[in-house]
């Protein structure tokens, strides 16, 4: 019985540790946003709908290359190579965040204490949500409006 309890405790500790390691891999310090935007711009992105950090220093970028082409690309941050890419011709023109909008939203998130980000996204109404972590590892979401530095809402998990 004692051996079984020890094994269960060890397994639980291992799983918790693995979960923490996985969470650490799916975030990026806010100062590395520039490299993400540089790589996306080099591929032709002009408007962004979502930027999400994935495991192993990979990032997924969704947005528009111009007024006709919408794209979703997975990038390797270290090498800068495009790992996977999908493009679709769409009508209605480009929409989403400009690079300037992203920088304003991230500036607002940093002012609220964000040290690492995991995801940036915009909804159809122009609300931008930046999800990430503060310096203590606490999860937070900072919401602002497109083109504005003012924060609308901050949620801590």
Automatic annotation (TrEMBL):
Residues 1-23 form the signal peptide. It comes from the Bacteria. Keywords: Signal. This is PepSY domain-containing protein. It comes from Halomonas nitroreducens.
């Amino acid at each position: 019985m004692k051996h079984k309890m020890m094994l269960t405790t060890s397994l639980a500790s291992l799983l918790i540790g693995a979960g923490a390691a996985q969470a650490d891999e799916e975030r990026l310090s806010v100062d590395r946003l520039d490299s993400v935007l540089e790589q996306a711009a080099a591929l032709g992105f002009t408007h962004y709908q979502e930027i999400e950090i994935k495991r192993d220093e990979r990032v997924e970028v969704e947005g528009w290359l111009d007024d006709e082409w919408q794209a979703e690309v997975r990038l390797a941050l270290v090498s800068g190579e495009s790992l996977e890419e999908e493009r679709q011709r769409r009508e209605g023109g480009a929409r989403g965040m400009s690079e300037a909008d992203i920088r304003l939203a991230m500036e607002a998130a940093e002012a609220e204490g964000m040290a690492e980000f995991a995801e940036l996204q915009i909804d159809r109404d122009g609300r931008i949500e930046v999800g990430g972590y503060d310096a203590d590892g606490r999860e937070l979401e900072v919401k602002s409006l497109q083109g504005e530095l003012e924060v609308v809402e901050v949620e801590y998990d």
